[in-house]
Design goal:
CATH superfamily of the largest domain: HUPs
Protein name: Electron transfer flavoprotein subunit alpha/FixB family protein
Cofactor: FAD
Radius of gyration: 22 Å
CATH architecture of the largest domain: 3-Layer(aba) Sandwich
Keywords: Electron transport, FAD, Flavoprotein, Transport
Strand order of the largest sheet: 7-11-6-1-4-5-12
GO molecular function, one term: electron transfer activity
Strand content: 25-35%
Subunit structure: Heterodimer of an alpha and a beta subunit.
CATH topology of the largest domain: Rossmann fold
Number of domains: 2
Mean pLDDT: 90
Number of helices: 8
Helix content: 25-40%
């Protein structure tokens, strides 16, 4: 019962970053419990060589099952069957919409406790204790489990860390598809609009909020990011993503991505706590806002009170002049 089961999502021959973080975290926790981390992959024609690479992140065994990729039902069926075998007490997921869906479904299937938006997990008295921020991330709630436990992380909460382990053993597993898992089919699968926005890897981020006024206002942020060149990108708040001004792939905050660039330039962002938790680890924070009382000035290294439509173009020209 010291082993931990972890789901690994893959697409076009590569594992999802959050899944790799979950595998590494499950490996660490299982090691402290005296067990092993075992991964589950579900898809059509998954190569054994690909599945075995999860050993580099700490999985000692990979269960491989045939089924449609990207649907929760088949994964719940497979993981439920493995739990029924009695070898597992915990399952770990790396977050994301599919992770939430599978984790919640699996909790109902095996009658387990479930904790979502987890940011840290510890071993306490031989059991897992999951921590999640509550009350606008102002406090931490700790969950422990009377029996089985499902832990679903906040996006990017678990570090992707190679453990130096050898290739994992790969075992084909069969399962009986439940009635409910047969009620949905994948029609098409592809990258969402804006998926090419790599805000997590950028060293400079120009983030836009409602202060930009409209979707077209993001052109100012894009011009500035382009002037910086190199590893600069444009990010956005949840409010403007919800308004359809910018893609979700660029969203920062509690329900988006967590970033830590060298420079974070916030343009027209108020600084709500939900946004702060996603960018507060930035090395340098510069905020531009016409509201001198905007909360973001409380945790910025440099604050500029003024009109974005005047400041951003001048800043872009200054950066261009500086770079020659």
């Amino acid at each position: 019962m010291s082993n931990i089961l972890v789901y690994a999502l893959h697409h076009e021959g590569a594992f999802n970053k959050n899944s790799l973080g979950a595998v590494a975290e499950a490996s660490r926790l299982a090691g402290e419990l005296g067990g092993e981390a075992h991964a589950v992959v579900v898809g059509a024609g998954i190569a054994d060589d690909l599945a075995a690479t999860l050993g580099s992140y700490g999985a000692t065994k990979v269960y491989k099952a045939d089924g449609p990729e990207g649907l929760s039902g088949p994964v719940i069926d497979v993981m439920g069957k493995l739990f029924d075998g009695g070898d597992y007490q915990y399952a770990v997921f790396g977050g994301g919409l599919l992770g939430f869906e599978i984790g919640a479904g699996l909790a109902a299937r095996i009658d387990a406790g479930v904790t979502m938006e987890v940011t840290a997990v510890n071993v306490v008295d031989g059991q897992l204790a999951a921590e999640r921020p509550i009350l606008g991330d102002s406090s931490i709630s700790t969950s422990r489990y009377k029996g089985k436990g499902i832990i679903i992380a906040r996006l990017n909460a678990f570090e992707v860390k190679e453990t130096g382990g050898s290739a994992a053993s790969v075992e084909q597993v069969s399962y009986e598809a439940s009635t409910q898992s047969q009620q949905a089919n994948i029609v098409t699968r592809g990258e969402q609009r804006g998926a090419d926005v790599d805000i997590e890897g950028a060293s400079i981020l120009v983030a836009g909020g409602r202060g930009l006024g409209k979707a077209e206002g993001f052109q100012l942020a894009e011009d500035l990011a382009k002037a910086f060149g190199g590893n600069a990108a444009v990010a956005a708040t949840r409010a403007v993503v919800d308004a359809g001004w910018y893609p979700y792939a660029a969203q920062i905050g509690q329900t988006g991505k967590t970033v830590a660039p060298k420079l974070y330039l916030a343009a027209g962002i108020s600084g709500a706590i939900q946004h702060k938790v996603g960018m507060q680890s930035s090395e340098n924070i510069v905020a531009i806002n016409k509201d001198a009382n905007a909360p973001i000035f409380e945790f910025s290294d440099l604050g500029i009170v003024g009109d974005l439509n005047k400041i951003l173009p001048k800043l872009t020209e200054a950066v261009k002049a500086r770079k020659g």
